[in-house]
């Protein structure tokens, strides 16, 4: 009997210790680095080199992306994320930050910096600077399938600073509500105006709204597993600029896994602007209207924590938005990118 009691107390102690281990706060360090090579097929690759009018992966020859270090602390109720980026991609991502100004630039750039409170099992409050909730693509190349980015991502918001509430309405439905500074003004409010955001989610499909003092955007982001090996992502958005033009677009992301280490995917995007829109395309008719159709074929080879991504991209515009090898205006541009991304 004494042995039985002793054994029982041992199991109870182990159980209590395990519970303590499960609820113990944790500190994490993660991140990535990326570099790439870029060359045009149909345009110069010297001082006259050009690139599609979308963000990132636009520099000629061998070029740097960014080093990304994410510090996180997760407690039972509260936590924080400090997401730091170093390099050209990071600087481009915070273009409205004073740190992006050459007179104030530093080697440390804050991509995200926020604290959160799990008020209950279904409600989380977050305050600080966080990447946008709109769109299919994100700033970090580790979370995107294609290395170059879409027009929809490049001319939608990158980041917000404010207060948001994430609410789990049920197992399938979610709701996010936010009040924020002007879009992409991430360090402080320099205008005195505020933006309002909302997101309604259902089983991995999201309908997003952003009411900014200077524009209004509605966005749908989602995707479907059509089989164990085939996934189809979808992004569609419309943005109307106050007292100016607008842009709209749709992008499809079919991706096929051919093995545990290799996936091939295609991004097909149609993007159009009116009254010069956001200036994304660069070629317009007399009324300031223009459109572009872009196809991006990407392979993704995973070797442990390293991912190699060869990519061919073809952009075809309605007007002469690009130049050819003779420096004459042309409606199309063909380019190649080879990227290396290491995540930890």
UniProtKB/TrEMBL annotation:
User: What keywords tag this UniProt record?
Assistant: Signal
Q: Where is the signal peptide?
A: 1-18
> Mind telling me which Pfam families this protein's record contains?
BBP2
InterPro entries assigned: BBP2 (IPR011486)
Signal is among the record's keywords: yes
Tell me yes or no: is Signal among this UniProt entry's keywords: yes
In Swiss-Prot or TrEMBL terms, this protein is called Porin
């Amino acid at each position: 009997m004494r042995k039985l009691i002793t054994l029982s107390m041992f199991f109870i102690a182990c159980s209590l210790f395990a519970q303590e281990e499960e609820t113990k706060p944790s500190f994490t360090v993660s991140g990535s680095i990326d570099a790439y090579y870029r060359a045009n097929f149909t345009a110069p690759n010297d001082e006259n080199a050009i690139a599609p009018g979308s963000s990132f992966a636009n520099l000629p020859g061998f070029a740097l992306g960014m080093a990304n270090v994410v510090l996180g602390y997760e407690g039972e109720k509260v936590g924080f994320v400090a997401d730091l980026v170093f390099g050209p991609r990071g600087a481009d991502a915070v273009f409205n930050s004073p740190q992006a100004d050459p007179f104030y630039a530093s080697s440390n750039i804050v991509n995200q910096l926020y604290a959160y409170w799990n008020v209950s099992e279904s409600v989380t409050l977050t305050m600080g600077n966080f990447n946008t909730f709109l769109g299919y693509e994100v700033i970090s190349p580790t979370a995107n399938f294609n290395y170059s980015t879409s027009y929809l991502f490049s001319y939608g918001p990158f980041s917000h600073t404010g207060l948001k509430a994430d609410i789990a309405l049920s197992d399938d439905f979610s709701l996010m509500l936010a009040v924020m500074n002007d879009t992409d003004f991430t360090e402080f409010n320099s205008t005195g105006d505020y933006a309002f955001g909302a997101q309604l989610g259902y089983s991995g499909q999201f309908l997003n709204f952003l009411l900014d003092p200077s524009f209004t955007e509605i966005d749908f982001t989602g995707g479907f597993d059509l089989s164990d090996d085939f996934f189809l992502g979808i992004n569609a958005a419309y943005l109307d600029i106050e007292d100016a033009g607008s842009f709209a677009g749709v992008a499809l992301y079919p991706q096929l896994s051919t093995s545990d280490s290799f996936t091939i995917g295609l991004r097909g995007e149609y993007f159009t602007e009116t009254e010069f829109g956001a200036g994304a395309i660069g070629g317009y008719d007399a009324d300031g209207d223009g459109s572009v159709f872009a196809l991006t074929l990407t392979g993704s080879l995973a070797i442990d924590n390293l991912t190699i991504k060869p990519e061919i991209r073809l952009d075809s515009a309605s007007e002469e938005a690009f130049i050819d090898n003779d420096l004459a205006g042309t409606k199309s541009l063909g380019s190649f990118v080879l990227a290396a991304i290491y995540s930890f």
